Amino acid sequence: MIKKRFFKTKNEVEVTFEWPLGSEETVSLAGDFNKWQAEPMKLNKRTKVFSYKTRLPKDDSFQFRYLINESEWENDPVADEYIRNEFGSDNSLLHTKEA
Q1: Three-class DSSP category at 98
Q2: Domains held by the chain: number
Q3: pTM assigned to the model
């Protein structure tokens, strides 16, 4: 799940990426906005959700994927769109343009 919070006075969007806890031990987020460096997501044990919050520029698009247990890449099932990557699979795409 992706939550977007638009600010009226700022040229950025607060984005919260979420991944529900299943059998995963670790979940990290990597994308073109962080130079594809896998950033660990925090597990909220009460809500059983891994999350990562960041701010991104408005009116742009960003590619990202989740790294599960440091070995398996997954896309977000509710991404705004998907785009082919150079490895023959798809990346999730996030748009920060307000609808």
Answers
A1: coil
A2: 1
A3: 0.93
